Amino acid sequence: MLAALLPLAVAATLRFPSVAAKIAPFAWFGYGCLGFVVAYALMRWRTVGWLYGGVTATWIGHSLDYVLLVTFLIMIVAVGLLVLAGAPGSNAVRRAAHQVFGTGGQPRTVPALLLLPVIGSGRRAAPVGCGSAR
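The structure assignment produced for this chain is given below.
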């Protein structure tokens, strides 16, 4: 299937380069999200191996570290391409960067959307003396 999609993608890119430039960041986001799926599968089900980022990742050894590193790098590239291509959503990324760095006439604050991963990753601590194991 990939062998059929690759020539089609190249032909579409050559035919409509401006559309391809605006779609490319979302393809990178999709590949980055696949990296999180691969990492989860390796941690949870200890699957035999996945081809991701140019290597076959297994649950034995340091493959999981490599998968997560490549996944985060791909997501960074996707955000950068999103801003450079002027794709839909690039204005929101620029506005968030201006708020974080305090440039562009924006006050220096942390946008609420950047706090969502922090809130989602937090764990609720049990109150002391309520039978929590220490």
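Interim note for the steering committee: The CA atoms of residues 55 and 61 lie 13 Å apart. The beta strands are 50-52, 55-57.
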